[in-house]
Design goal:
The protein is built from eleven helices and 48 strands. It is an alpha+beta fold. Strand 13 and strand 14 form a beta hairpin. It is globular and about 100 Å long.
Length: 945
């Protein structure tokens, strides 16, 4: 049966084009993740018929940069308007990338885009297929899933969305690598006479019997926000020759019936299998009872008997109420402590004072230096608070000139409180290769007297007149709660000033096992086969150093030896084992706590050589022979079993593919045939899926005895569809947005437990050091398990030139911290306060997160220096004093509750693996045999050196 396309439009995700739609153009275009098409056809003649297959016929345009190759076709979970625009100029009343009806109707929830109602999102279904080669007239055909067509017939889809699944293309001929990101694949629209697309559908008999009724609906509101609920029921059988495909749902409040938004209504699962409907985004009152009707519908459009019932939405958690702090800042004061030619101030760890001129970042009033939330110059008093197992800091600033300056900080003889003093070193910020200013960032232990200007550096030539030091106290587990008295003594040129330090030790203890992990990502420069110094420095600061063991060639710098059948564990166990059993950290504050996370040495090119088994293809299952798959799977399994046998069950081991195909342009030995890190197109996500499936199958026998996680860095997670659902254990989201967070939360509720973290770049050295704290708080409030600055280890040059990615500074006597590393620790400790608050109040995390957002503004913006930049989150004007007030408020409340110590507040369980529950995606099952597009490549293996 032939059906003409009745409406079509082109949408664009490209910046500057998102607010328009080309419903009136004579050519449509598929362009990777940039541009995609919506089509529709009048299919009422198919009702009551069993659809067995379909072909979409498209006529490619002669000016296309590449022919149509593999096309994905999805249902659409929202109504849309074609419009008659020929360009992407903003226009109201039509469908655009941003809205179903521009200026009037969202695609789904506020802030959603069309990506929320197609290709797995918004309870949609999809499949892909390869197009036939263009005939002499340019006509091509592509198979469409019978279920996708049937959904339109059944009234549970509003047409079809078409996507270019190949996206980027490449060639490697005679040693020359060429790469094209977004080729334009043009085809004619319905406005082109004689060239309009059309749909060919095969039917095989009739089906007039509706599905059987739904038997029971369960309602769950546990831990959900107010007004939400999850309804679960089993897919009923269909006896008419087709299958139960989906559901029609209505709800009624105040006697008014209306359809449930299509994007909330699930498609059917296999007969007898559960489906889940997450009720959200609707204006229900907390605890309100809602009437509903669910009717099953089959693939021939037959509607079954209604199931009627009522559900009560969540009342929400009890209101989070934390009493006011009950403490005020010291009075600001123009009066300053003096010591000879020095002026003494004390400010927050998160304040920044420039060494030349003393300008503060964030900007503070001059009187702030004499009186603030920590310090009173009039009283000569510093006031601190902290929990057991917490490090608490303040910043001492000296302005003026002096020689032979000494600083001492302690709590008296016999005290078990451990104090340290670090002195800032300064780095120079450059702009367009010209020096702009000096900034404080690296910290070195204060072991001797110093002068101002510092005679040991070049700062005297730059006019240095300010020197800051970080004074820190660690409160051990055994410390008795209450007030502790200490002294800060500053001596200069034979004179001294003493300042009282009042420390209140709260009556609770931070856990040793981190509830939130600031992950210090690293490439090179560190190896457990050489030293644990960097790992120890990160561990001491309640963060986790995680060094990727391999580079673009995929060959690890440290790994057990593999002979093709088994590993030699001797070196690995000797050098890496202490990190995994905690003995490398036995003398640190979190004594003996193992490494939180560890990259495994696996890559696409180790331990099995990719070049021996790869056949050029855009599609991973066509690219490899069975030997590659079997050997890699065996290595995965053996590694997991060894970790189980060693009892390394605390560390999260991460299999992570980091390489990118475009690296081949700069590095000829690069081994990646796809973009694994920050995948772009479906071919990239599909390759990650293949490796993830192999990983999960291989480590399944040790699940529960060792944490063997599949991890990915996904900056374009909105294009990830449901490709990695049930496969990727933890997703590191780059440039996280409300849409990306929502998509991840929907996956967790509807499909099963999984984790996510946020990655980006640490704050620039010239920016406020409040930023790492706010990043931690913001990420935790969204449900993330951690944050990851993409590079954290500096170079020798970092001591002179300001480098945003230098959080740990290399030095001859061992690595030194930056103040930004201490800010990440502060953020981690503040999250522990919040996690303890959840426990004490017995409320879910989202309840405390809502309260947190009511106290401080956690909205972020991301800026990038280039397209390749991971992005830096920038938060609003939140002062160190505001963060102190928040921390004090929670700390005082927790101390009054005196919760008992628990080593771990959060249990990192590896998500369950159920291959039977994976989304039914991929190839159209009924399709003609068509050769897939392949790269033009005469030799993928790099030439010998």
């Amino acid at each position: 049966m032939r059906f003409e396309i009745s409406r079509d439009t082109l949408l664009s995700a490209a910046e500057g084009e998102q607010a328009g739609g080309k419903g009136g153009t004579d050519k449509l275009k598929l362009k990777g993740i940039m541009e995609f098409a919506l089509l529709d056809a009048e299919l009422t003649k198919l009702k009551g018929k069993t659809i067995s297959g379909a072909l979409l016929h498209l006529r490619s345009s002669p000016n296309a940069e590449a022919p149509l190759a593999r096309i994905g076709v999805s249902t659409v979970a929202a109504a849309w308007i074609e419009g008659d625009a020929g360009g992407y100029q903003p226009r109201s009343g039509i469908s655009t990338f941003l809205q179903a009806v521009s200026g009037e109707v969202d695609w789904a929830y506020p802030g959603s885009t069309v990506l929320d109602v197609v290709f797995g999102k918004g309870n949609t279904i999809w499949k892909f297929a390869d197009c036939s080669a263009p005939d002499d007239a340019g006509w091509q055909a592509c198979a469409v899933s019978a279920d996708v067509v049937a959904a339109r017939v059944a009234g549970i889809s509003d047409g079809f969305c078409l996507f270019d699944e190949v996206g980027h293309i490449w060639s490697l001929k005679n040693g020359t690598f060429k790469y094209k990101w977004f080729p334009n694949r043009y085809f004619f629209s319905r406005e082109s006479r004689g060239s309009a697309p059309w749909l060919e559908v095969w039917v095989d008999g009739k089906d007039s019997l509706p599905p059987e009724p739904i038997g029971r609906v369960a309602v769950d509101t546990d831990a959900l926000p107010a007004g939400e609920a999850v309804l679960t029921w089993k897919t009923p059988p269909d006896r008419g020759g087709g299958k139960t495909l989906g559901f029609l749902v209505e709800y009624a409040t105040d006697g008014r019936k209306q359809p449930m938004p299509r994007y909330l209504v699930p498609m059917a699962a296999g007969t007898g299998e559960d489906v889940r409907m997450h009720i959200q985004d609707l204006p229900f009152r907390p605890g309100e009872t809602v009437a509903f009707v669910i009717r099953p519908v089959d693939s021939a459009g037959n509607v079954g008997q209604a199931f009627e019932g009522n559900f009560a939405v969540s009342t929400g958690s009890k209101k989070v109420a934390v009493p006011p702090a009950g403490i005020t800042s010291f009075e600001e004061s123009a009066e300053r402590l003096k010591l000879g030619q020095l002026t003494i101030s004390v400010v927050d760890l998160l304040d920044k004072i420039k060494p030349v001129g003393g300008e503060t970042v964030p900007d503070q009033r001059p009187e702030y230096l004499g009186g603030n939330h920590l310090f009173s110059s009039q009283q000569k008093r510093i006031r601190l608070q902290g929990a057991r197992n917490e490090a608490v800091c303040f910043q001492l600033n000296l302005a003026g000139t002096a020689k032979r300056i000494n600083v001492a900080y302690d709590f008296g003889r016999g005290s078990k409180l451990t104090t340290t003093v670090h002195k800032f070193s300064n780095v120079t910020r450059y702009h367009k290769k010209r020096p702009v200013e000096m900034l404080p960032d690296p910290l070195v232990p204060l072991r001797k007297s110093f002068s101002l200007p510092d005679s040991d550096s070049d700062s005297s030539e730059a006019g240095e007149d300010n020197q800051s030091l970080i004074c820190e106290v660690y409160i051990p587990h055994a410390e008795i709660p209450g007030r502790k008295s200490g002294k800060l003594v500053i001596e200069a040129d034979g004179e001294e000033v003493a300042v009282d330090v009042d420390l209140t030790v709260w009556n609770f203890t931070l856990p040793d096992k981190l509830s939130f992990i600031p992950e210090m990502n690293a490439y090179g420069r560190v190896s457990p086969y050489k030293s644990y110094d960097y790992y120890r420095l990160a561990h001491e600061h309640r963060t986790c150093l995680n060094r990727l063991p391999y580079a673009w060639d995929g060959l690890p710098k440290f790994a057990p030896r593999w002979n093709g059948k088994s590993f030699d564990w001797s070196g690995w166990d000797f050098y890496v084992g202490p990190l995994l059993d905690g003995s490398a950290f036995s003398d640190l504050p979190r004594k003996g706590e193992p490494l939180d996370m560890l990259y495994l040495p696996f890559s696409e090119n180790w331990p099995v050589n990719l070049f021996d088994h790869y056949r050029p293809s855009y599609w991973v299952e066509e690219a490899f022979d069975s030997h590659y798959r079997d050997q890699l799977g065996r290595a995965f399994s053996d590694f997991a079993m060894h970790c189980k046998e060693k009892g390394w069950n605390e560390t999260i081991f991460q299999f992570y593919l980091n390489n990118k195909l475009p690296n081949r342009r700069r590095f000829k030995r690069s081994s990646a045939p796809w973009v694994f890190d920050e995948p772009v197109h479906t071919q990239d996500f599909w390759a990650l899926r293949w490796y993830g499936l192999l990983w999960q199958q291989s480590v399944q026998p040790v699940r529960g005895d060792a944490n063997m996680w599949y991890r990915g860095d996904i900056s374009r997670s909105q294009y990830g569809r449901d490709l990695l659902w049930g496969i990727m254990d933890v997703e590191y989201i780059g440039g996280n947005t409300a849409q990306k967070t929502r998509m991840k939360q929907d996956e967790i509720v509807l499909h099963g437990n999984t984790y996510f973290a946020e990655y980006g770049t640490a704050n620039r050295i010239e920016d406020p050091n409040t930023q790492p704290v706010l990043w931690c708080l913001s990420a935790w409030s969204k449900g993330a398990i951690g944050v990851l600055p993409w590079q954290t280890i500096g170079t020798k040059r970092s001591w002179e030139r300001a480098e945003q990615t230098a959080l740990l500074y290399p030095a001859r006597e061992g690595p030194m911290p930056s103040v930004r590393l201490k800010a990440f620790r502060r953020g981690q400790q503040d999250v522990e306060y919040l996690q303890l608050l959840c426990d004490v109040l017995k409320v879910p995390q989202h309840a405390v997160a809502d309260w947190l957002r009511s106290q401080i503004d956690l909205k972020e913006q991301y800026y990038k220096t280039s397209r390749q930049d991971a992005g830096t989150a920038v938060y609003g004007d939140i002062s160190p004093m505001q963060l102190w007030n928040l921390r004090y408020r929670i700390g005082k409340f927790l101390s009054a509750k005196a919760p008992p110590y628990r080593r771990s507040l959060v249990e990192w369980k590896q998500p369950a693996w159920d291959p039977a529950s994976l989304p039914d995606i991929g190839y159209v099952k009924t399709a003609p045999q068509v050769d897939s597009l392949r790269p033009r490549c005469d030799r993928f293996r790099p030439a010998s050196r």
